[in-house]
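Dynein axonemal heavy chain 9
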Amino acid sequence: MRGAEERAALAEENADGKPGADRRLRLLGTYVALSLRPAAGAWERCAGTAEAEQLLQAFLDRDAAEGPRPLLVVLPGPGGLAVRPGLEVRPESGPAGAKGLFFLRTGPEPPGPDSFRGAVVCGDLPAAPLEHLAVLFSEVVLPVLANEKNRLNWPHMVCEDVRRHAHSLQCDLSVILEQVKGRTLLPLPAGSEKMEFVDSKSETVLDSIDKSVIYAIESAVIKWSYQVQVVLKRESSQPLLQGENPTPKVELEFWKSRYEDLQYIYNQLRTIKVRGMAKLLDKLQSSYFPAFKAMYRDVVAGEDQQVFSQVCLTQITVE
């Protein structure tokens, strides 16, 4: 796989000697050809449309002294290539799993006609950016931060602060990924990996547990309770409030999705790690243990209500 510098050199080399009004457009086209490998003539057809011409000229010529740096995204579309002014307007009709390409201006001045080096950053845009970011963070960033050789001169407080923020970001990414799938993930706090081996009856083990781990567990209970309440307070009447007219099928799908989400939450609360956390809070007589029990009861009660609602709705639909 070519690196960014190698692709830049190839783009500039391949753009030489080709006739045209603006050599920068040819440079962009060469980058696109090297990275996305579209069908012959796809870039020319795309860049020749009125909308693309306007976006390309704005990217290449606009003075960006104020405001965000100009961004240009090239994506595979149903009829070839598509040019977009940002990341938020990705068409759903593109090929599944197809990557895109982004160009980002690094300075306020427009790039020169001979080279993009130092003026434009180019990179691949994964088909699933969020999943890509989560994998990159867990398999590249976290191992780098965890390597003691990379933080030999760091004060202990700095190491702990970086570790805490890195864990928080990893949890946030995992929660968002599950939300996209319609499920609620209860992120485990830092230090929870030790809960599988905790004997809540042993006083020595309880004394050896770091106070920061206990604080992290109690903070997790607060966050979990909020997440559970969000799920329980969802109403099937929401489409009606938004002016829609849902069918019985939509109602059934809502309750089915809600039941599956509650079941997913229940299974997480029954894992060995979470049960170990609950036993620890109970042994320490933590004020957060009643909140944990109340949350657990709410999930179980929500599941029971869910089953009853589904049965009634199914009978109504059949009748």
